[in-house]
């Protein structure tokens, strides 16, 4: 018998990939979307065989009735407090009201359990939601995947392609973890269909230090990549405060200083996993950073 999985945040980049992974595993997928969702995105989901419900996200009862009979509710919501805390609470309570056994929160990030509160806004919001989630009468599983590998060729300034440099704050041998959004989606689908996944699962498609990045990029491009180290973690913290003071961008999800906070947390070493759960689901083929960059070869010229 097919398991029914409800996905919230279904039209986002990760949400769509999670749905595709669930459909590939022959799950019965329901998507709960906002009233203002683009009809084209809804049609695309329905063409795949997804049952889509447009609802008012402030209406817990409306969400709840569409969760009845579901094995798990998967949140792929992205946003600030109004979304990650307030809306997720409503979705969580709706799942509980519908007697759904399991819930996957929208974490999909570096492991923030050991981070100092007050130093990373977006992760602090997730931690705040966790305080609420951990008291709820539902079995939850958070997935920590390091940084999205996809960001290496877009928004994360770690690889400075034009300058042939690897940006490094702190120790150039500090290991950092990366996973493609496709692998995160595959893994999330497996967790959603699992009968007994634990509270936390930690995965990494690949893990490299800045020194290893420099060696890899030199190998892939045939051009010498070097470490660019403008300073240590203390200087980066000062720059974060200055950037946030002059450009607070409080309503932006990823202002410059938020990206700097994320990079600081990765390079500081507080978030490196002690144990990996990649092997929990044996069918997933993990994409390495080398494989990913080869696929994005346009950026390596």
UniProtKB/TrEMBL annotation:
All residue ranges annotated as the NmrA-like domain in the record: 1-226
Transmembrane segments: none
Species the sequence originates in: Solitalea longa
GO molecular function: oxidoreductase activity
Oxidoreductase among keywords: yes
This protein's record includes keyword NADP: yes
Alphabetic keyword roster: NADP, Oxidoreductase
Highest taxon of source: Bacteria
Protein name, UniProt field: NmrA family protein
């Amino acid at each position: 018998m097919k398991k029914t999985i409800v996905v919230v945040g279904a039209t986002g980049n990760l949400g769509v990939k999670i749905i595709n992974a669930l459909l590939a595993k022959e799950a019965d997928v329901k998507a709960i979307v906002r009233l203002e969702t683009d009809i084209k995105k809804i049609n695309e989901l329905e063409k795949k065989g997804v049952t889509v419900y447009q609802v008012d996200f402030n209406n817990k009862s409306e969400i709840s009735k569409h969760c009845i009979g579901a094995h798990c509710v998967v949140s792929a919501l992205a946003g600030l407090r109004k979304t990650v805390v307030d809306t997720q609470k409503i979705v969580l309570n709706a799942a509980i009201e519908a007697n759904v056994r399991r819930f996957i929160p929208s974490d999909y990030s570096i492991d923030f359990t050991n981070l100092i509160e007050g130093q990373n806004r977006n992760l602090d919001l997730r931690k705040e939601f966790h305080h609420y989630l951990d008291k709820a009468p539902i079995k939850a599983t958070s997935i920590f995947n390091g940084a999205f590998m996809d960001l290496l060729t877009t928004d994360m300034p770690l690889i400075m392609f034009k300058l042939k440099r690897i940006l490094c704050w702190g120790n150039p041998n500090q290991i950092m973890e990366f996973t493609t959004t496709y692998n995160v989606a595959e893994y999330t689908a497996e967790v959603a269909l699992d009968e007994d996944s634990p509270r936390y699962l930690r995965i990494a498609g690949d893990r490299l230090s800045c020194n290893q990045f420099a060696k890899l990029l030199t190998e892939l491009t045939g051009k010498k990549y070097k470490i660019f180290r403008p300073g240590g973690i203390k200087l980066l913290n000062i720059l974060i405060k200055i950037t946030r003071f002059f450009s607070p961008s409080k309503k932006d999800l990823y202002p410059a200083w938020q990206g700097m906070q994320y990079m600081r947390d990765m390079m500081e070493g507080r978030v490196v996993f002690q144990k990996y759960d990649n092997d929990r689901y044996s069918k997933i083929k993990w994409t390495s950073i080398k494989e990913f960059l080869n696929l994005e070869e346009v950026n390596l010229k």
